[in-house]
């Protein structure tokens, strides 16, 4: 199902079919690159991700079949197909994660998302000296809180609302900033005497 976010951009709710299609690390990367950097060809994407253009082309066609990417007819011609992300973002309902038939694809998808988040953060760490004006503005924090599931949902809703309050069209001097948020319970393994 496609919806509109607060700025009128298309967002998609993943269903079983799209979750299965997105349960591949390369597909998650391709959609992410198209969202962040805009339309590209399979050849251009192949160079970025270190794959053959045949491989990226095949994955793009699979993503197009489930509506995650679409051909950009304004840029393409008979020799060259351009692709763009079909949505500005997507959400996954938690009911998909509890479906036993989707346990494998859901785990693959979540691991791909975490790998993508890690890669983006690691790239920034490697490039941070290239961002002198941003020293003191970026943050890598982690917290351990004692919460009930209800309080965790409340926290997530408040963080989402806060992040959305900063969403706007790009202005002069603005940079694209990745905001990654993870909140999940942890098992404790205290050492016993």
UniProtKB/TrEMBL annotation:
Q: Which GO terms describe its molecular function?
A: DNA-binding transcription factor activity
Report domain HTH arsR-type positions.
17-111
Q: Tell me which domain of life the UniProt entry assigns to the organism this sequence originates from.
A: Bacteria
Which residue windows are transmembrane per the record?
none
Q: Known SUPFAM superfamilies for this protein?
A: Winged helix' DNA-binding domain
Question: Which Gene3D superfamilies does the record associate with it?
Answer: Winged helix-like DNA-binding domain superfamily/Winged helix DNA-binding domain
Which InterPro entries does the record match to this protein?
ArsR-like_HTH, HTH_ArsR_DNA-bd_dom, WH-like_DNA-bd_sf, WH_DNA-bd_sf
Record-given protein name? ArsR family transcriptional regulator
Q: Which organism is it from?
A: Herbihabitans rhizosphaerae
